[in-house]
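Long-time lurker. I teach an intro course on protein structure, and each term I like to show students one example going from raw sequence to a predicted 3D structure in token notation. This year I'd like something fresh instead of my usual example. Would anyone be willing to generate the tokens for the chain below so I can use it in lecture? Attribution to the forum is fine with me.
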Amino acid sequence: MRSLLLDNYDSYTYNLYQLISEACGVEPLVYKNDEISIKEISKLLSEGVVDNIVISPGPGTPTRKEDIGICQSVLTTCKEVPILGVCLGHQALAAINGGRVVRAPEPVHGRLSAVQHTGHPLFADIPSGSGQGFEVVRYHSLVVTDLPDCLESIAWTCGGHHAVRLQQRGNTDDDDGHQERCSTADPIITKEGREAELIMAIAHKSQPHFGVQFHPESICTKFGFQLLHNFYTISQCYIGHTSISRVLPDPPMEGPPGRSLPPRPWPSIHTAPAVGRLADQDPLRLVWRCLPGLLSKVAVNKTSGSELLFSRLLKWEKDTFWLDSSATDRGRFSYMGGKGGSLWKRISYRLHASSSKTPQDGSKLYPESDAPHSSSHHSRTGGVVTEEDSLGMVRETCVSSFFDYMTELIAGHSLVASESDAKGLPFNFWGGLVGYLGYELKAECGGQNAHTSPTPDAAFFLADRVIAVDHLHGDVYVLALYRSPSPQEGIGALSSRQILSTDLTSAEPPTSIMKEDALHWLKIAMKELLALAVIGDHGSALESTSLNSSDVLIKQSHTHRDTQLTSKVQKHDVVSIDSECSPSNVSSLVPPFHLRHSKEQYMANIEVYRQALHAGESYEVCATTALERPHAPEPSLLYSTLRRLNPAPYSSWLSIGGADGLTVCCSSPERFLSLDRGSVLEARPIKGTAPRRPADPVEDARLAAELAGSEKERAENLMIVDLLRNDLGRVCEVGSVHVPGLMEIESYATVHQMVSTVRGLRREGTSLVECIRAAFPGGSMTGAPKIRTMEILDACEGHARGVYSGSLGFISFNDTFDLNIVIRTAVISQAYNVVNKPESGRQVQRRSSSAEVSGSSHDIEGGQDSPSERFASSSRGASDGCSGQLQSDSWVSIGAGGAIVVQSDTGSEYEEMRLKARALLQATGLCDGLHGPAIVDDAAAPYQRVERVMSRGTF
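-- Reply from a regular --
Happy to contribute to a lecture. Here you go:
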């Protein structure tokens, strides 16, 4: 028996897909509510292709045609077909038959309720009543009331609703093996009274139509599997036959999900289409060498060794990258590289200019019943790819989408690896693409092309030369790729004696120029690395006659710089961010940051988001803004400071050459998505943040415990976990998506975070690009449902997010990838001029000092200029910045934000946004020479950035 699953543009539909597949044994057909006609559905039913219909949840209201689509016709036309409506589908069933759908006493999103039922067959073998174990997750703002005679209520809430609690690690005795470490005993907070008996399920008295208000597919709903199995059983009985010919193969794992995934052999014998070799392209070969323990010979401390390697070999130049696991206890490997190599390219992509008609006044978005829904009008906009190789040759190409371009690029770079490669390299990045996907690429993932980003919408290097660092063992690897038609396998690992003694001009078996180039670079890189090791072992030039004195000074000067910076960071512990930096201590040449949205506008946007939540348009909205200023700190100093102040497992330095002069200084703690050689996909969404107080261990522990027990943060996290399960469910094997870590607290240098882990086994034949596209943008930066919520954000934010909120990392030619979420990041652009605005004669009433970062603000005494005005007046005669540390004609932007849910307090959300910018402001302030964080002035800035005129196709 097979189901037709109608998707109302929800972000949990593929959780239903997975659950239906497991419960019924056959994967359902999935259509969006505007891409199939009632005639086509009738044909599927009459031909026996499908036997029943499931209507998904979704945003909006069942009385709005744009929200419910074809589902209205299905409910009125398919009267003899078993139909199950979930949430919005449940409400549509009631509305079509004359029931009332009204606003609930209060919206309930990501919270649980006990349910009592009548014993209807839909609830067979499911307990009933408070304390009996049947707890369900609810995501809704509307409820069904006043049922007509043809409908009956078969389940309702008993008691209130509460946040989820977690069981301790260890084995669980879940009801059906499909929930993971969720517990509903001993609720944190319970709402009673008006919530006592809300309708949670209905049934038609004469037709096989049923509806449930709750979400059986949520990770924390009990007996969801049993409910879907019951619907399958009802469908069998009603139709009078069983369709056992279309059954799934055995599940890919034994026992309940949540414990482990058996990885597939690598490489897979069923390669995905994007991994295959193009007919006109020779495969790639890999040459590499490991230098055991080298990092410990050059390191001053845990994190300085890799920075020394980067500084010595790549020198912070343009067109360099450093995927930097600066929090080495959570990130084992770092990767770095630069321009050069026969395969190297700089790749940028710009979407065609936005033609969106998204309303710019967010307050007018959501009248009670007629808000527009444009999900059916999303189109792939396409854009221009610009490639520049190491010789400076430039090529521009119009493409239908960047994801399609990446698919073709990867297909043309098939890597042939040896057994020694697979066994000898403990990490996944063997060369490939390194760069970022900007947030505006949502336009190619179902979202709108609402705003034009001043920075490229995607930028990558094709990196054919890589240095990898193993922080666990202290080993350093050098790797190079080259293209070779030779049928022999990759050259694999070579000994240092072989490489260092090889005369590449001597008579040896003929090799291609590309192979010679790769071997030559390997030789040079190893010499540089071994020279650093010699300096580390001997400590002076007198003991190493083959090295000149400048080589000896590298480590000494680096040690001095590291010691100075560490001392400075320690002296200005993150706790000191809460202390005020008086105007007299601030150089008049240091420009203040200003908010892209003023404090008042940011808080007004939050109120619009809350209205959308109450109207049923969204469950959670991830609001963002940016703190921006002209005259950026010197990029290498800023990143070097940031990685010490706020070490993180997904930190990154990305310096992109070309016209834009873009540099990304990232200290992200969050993984967006990764794929390993065993085809295991993993997401690690973060939702829930609290400040740290490392100088006060008792207070620090209290803040962590408060975060762990926060009802609001748990609701936020649960919603995003369910969203990520959905995104992985689109591309993973049935039954493989699971949550091994739910709402765990991780502590970083400046904040505590609530983190969950979602994993699944990639479906055979699915390319890695399809996996990325299915989940992009990361749900922790959008909210849920993703498509509708992004529309809300587009209207209120009014600006492109750019690099911020996107993803940065590597896509390896060995069919793996690891991408972060771009948060806790400064983006420095050289593509702007900064000019003073005409004098307005305005009276500045207040400024934001470092004190306001932690929530306090201070009026400026009469006659005292704001930081913005002092900078404006001084900059008329000096544009070189502060003490030579600030670059003229540059712009720095720090994105920050937070998730808005029904329980959000507007003022607290503003402070959380400022908290997330804290480490970046502190690092910038240290670079500026201040005794605290950089100044933030929330008055209107007296300067503005002027974008350099450029073609949308130019990088």
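Some talking points for your students: Residues 284-352+380-569 form one domain. The chain is about 25% helix and 25% strand.
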